[in-house]
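WARN retry 2 of 3 for item q-0093 after timeout on previous attempt; input resubmitted unchanged.
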Amino acid sequence: MNDTDNLLLDELIDAQRFVGWVNSPNGRGTISIIWSCVLVLVTSIWTAIHLNLPARDDKWVHVIARRVRWGFMAILAPDLLTLIAANQWESARRSVAKIKEIAGSKQWTLEHAFYADSGGFHLQPADGPSFPINANTIHFLVSRRYIRLPEVSEEEILDKSKTDAFAKSFTLLQTSWIAVQSIARAIQGLSISPMELFTLAFLVSTASSYFFWWHKPKDVGVPIFVECQYSIATILAENGRSDKEYVNTPLDFAANSTRFYERRRTLRNYDLEKRGRGTGTERIPLQRIPDDDFTLSLPCLLIYLLAIPAMIHSCIHLAGWNFAYPTQTEKLLWRISSIVLAAGSSVCVGVIRVLTTLGYEGEYNLAWAWVNADRRRLDESSHKIFSAFGDSFLTLCTLVLVVVRCFIITEAIISLRKLPADVFETPDWTNFIPHV
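OK item q-0093 returned
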């Protein structure tokens, strides 16, 4: 048998294994696969993302654009979204303990702490414009008796939220269906499409974000104003501060006392149009708390716990190792991308540990956009070349992870043009019913 005969035989086998677009009048079809996956992705993203309160002069276009940007980030870097959610959860948990130490109040719950850290409370001083204060600032002001602890019930805060526990539970139930269906198909030996596998992997990170943001109020539009009888000038003078020192608000020294990550200088003012506008007493403080505000470093135990769903999310793509793809090239690229996703984050963490041991003093960047706030500046480092190399390596790692993530998403979509025939078969659910 010559090469031409082998080629014709391979084409005949592919024609029997693969099919193109399939209508779905009475069963699974291409459009039903697309619809179920897109519906799960959109509803998960829409209900999972809990953004901070907008500025009072933000138009609805700004709010929608901000949500869309975070939606894209959730798809491209779901583990990063979970990390931000975990950071906010840990900050809220610590806030509850700190407030109870000084106020002894049982009225300060996780809902209160989340609400404060999202910009739900605005301080109205005796002089100047109001501005948002987070939980750290509230603790500072209450402990020094500048204000009383805001007397807002948990019910009032939840009433401002646009999504309740029922809506979140319903979304989780809806997204669980695709997981159950995928497991049933695997048990019965039916093929799963790459799009369904990608959606299943995404749900793991979404579930983690749901957990950490469960108590955070969602889509609150109007803050609660906290009256202060003292002027900002008095508060700053009594604490040895100057009104020229702040970047976001006059009380930055209290709000940022435990800050770990901050934006790079080139991105510092992005989506924060009111930052530092004006001079002196006419200077306008920042009118909203950024959604990417990393207020503290996470404990090692929580980092290790975060690594579990991150590894599961990455390793789920490895389940598509022996899937039938339209071409062998796509199959090879899927395998490479899955390996890089599964090992990439662990390699980055390992390299950081090694660099630290060797004396690395540069910026620990997170997805390039954020750098650790307590770093030693590159121009102050005695190992400038070494530090520059470390920063470049971490940036390259981020770029590689984004590229392979984009390929996974692209392949999940374009593979729909040619899927194995049994992808469109429906599992026989009666096989799971025990027979008496």
